[in-house]
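Request: Give me one sample?
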Amino acid sequence: MSALRELATIAGIDVEYAAWNGKPTAASDESVLAALRAMAPDLGIKIDRSEDARGAIAVLERERWNQIVPPVVVGWDGSIVVPFGVPAEDDLDWEVEVTTESGRLVRAHGRLFDLPGDSHAWPGGVVHCQRRATIYLDGENGYHSVRWKTSGAQGEAFAISAPMTAWGGPGQGARRWGVFAPVYGLASAETGQAGDLGTLRRLFDAVERRGGRYVATLPILAQFLDEPCMFSPYSPASRLYWNELYLDLAPLAAAAGIEPPVAPPIVPGTRIDYRTQYHWRRHALDPIAERLLADPAHSSAIDAWAHTNGAYDYAAFRAIGEQRRAGWASWPAPWRDGTPFVETRADAIALGADGARLSTHVVGQWAMQQQLEKLAAGKVGLYLDLPVGVNCDAYEVWRHRHLFLIDLAAGAPPDPLFLGGQNWGLPPLSPIALRRDRYRYFIRCVQHHMKVASMLRIDHVMGLFRLYCVPGGRPATDGVYLRYDYEELFAILALESHRNHCAIVGEDLGTVPPQVRPAMTRHGMFRLHVGQWFFPSRPGAKPEPAPAESVASLNTHDTPTFAGWWRGADIDDRRDLELINDQQEGQERLERDQQRAALLAHVHTDPSGITIGDPLTDVERAMVGATTDLAVGPAEVVLVALDDLVLEPFPHNVPGTVDQRPNWQRRVDRWSESLDEDRASPPAAATITAVVAARTSRS
């Protein structure tokens, strides 16, 4: 192994990995060097050229040798484990003092060689020993502070003690179901309703009437919808604040004593114009915010909430960005390169933020939180999605730049669908900076979502273990993996899961390292099952059943809808995008024909014992049957996409097609009828009736 690649391994970078087809794959030296340069400030090394690698290795080896206790330690079920790393010949005294989150003091001490541990050889033949002291905290889980001491050294560490398994995980016995729809897609030309928390509430009510437990949706986080305009829900402007585009303005206007604004009509057949919609909503929200802040009762509550949640700092960032009409990288130096944290409205005004814009953003965030908490208080739970990261112009990258590696971009390696790999344009979090900062940012992201969610899906859960990253200027096929301490991240998720009564789902689709799913099982996380990937391929065969510990659905927002799959729209896409050639296209269409025939044959045998009913077309009968098959299967949670109930042929997103496809802009037509027993179409009515029967009869 070259010195450059050895350095990368020591630094927490995997430069070699198994590709989707099992073949060994390695990043180029250029990408390895670029990744090391991006991490060099956090590592405390100088690496301008490959020739600098040997000296940098010596620096990191010395640091590893000198680190007695890591900056973060973890324990489970009311304990923590403090590892001491010392030379094997040093039988030292040790002391640990833990201040728990509740303020309780716990002390322990002893001799290092009385502790369990192991040894390993360092360069030069020196033997280094790691001993582990388990400190029991009488069952108190939480975020604790540790002071440690050995003969001649002392320091501090951040400790996380968490339940071993997340709250509400697999094995609870209840067989639940829900529906999926993006909030933006709930806009309806038939009713004139916008896609917002008001229409989401109506969907919650409809699901509750039919006995469902969840409404799943895409991220509803803050976005830039003016300049710059980035409306992908997976490239948010912040993971700490909501998207005020989705505010239900009618009750907010009533609270302000203003006539409810009248939304512009929705033209059937058109896609969502985010700029226009945001402009209208901001125009409606501005006077509402002004009126609410003029009322002492509302103003006091809003101010207290904003101060507690850091909303003035975020609002100042957004106000300045709107004034400049550009991302923070283009701002003048005083604003671009760091300003004091804004704690009050007066501080924001002094910074140069426009007062009216500031007010609207603060009120928008406060109102979104109020409406979401009210929504979450009912019988139906909100199933939210925590995206991998934020875009380069995001609030967090501006405010907490030291946490991000802005010269790298998160993505995905080549796979059968995208042989060119994927570059998502999201700057990854630095594993080293995250730990040094005691995971404060990650904890805030998780808490922000779990305050209102009953189930939280961790997008690309493999990123908690290692994250594929592409250095700037390199192709998406030439990336490296950054390694993260997944046990520390899982501990945070499990702890917050219990504190907020929120179950956790890991999106484990794609290239999954072998340690991921066992860790998910160990820590009580649900996994995903995508039914269309497991349809039978020959008549007489059955669909592969979903695992009991899964959230099962026919598809996801990144795959074709059922009707799209049936007609081969995904094959059309891959051919149009030149991801497959003529021969591959012909083979895929032949296989799809066989799958359609096999699925229809399976449905006609009526294996569920639930009558589907007539008359239905082949695609309708297949959709109802495939959904019913999931519902009667072992999966504890089943989600039904509203798109499938209305047989929508076009997907919400075609991954890897930022400019080639109109992603994230499609409404779900006739969604309000789908759960109505009197107005639902025959396939929608048959589907929900079968799902309710299957989930109820076997609960």
User: Anything to note?
Assistant: The mean pLDDT is 91. The two ends are 56 Å apart (CA to CA). The longest helix spans residues 582-604.
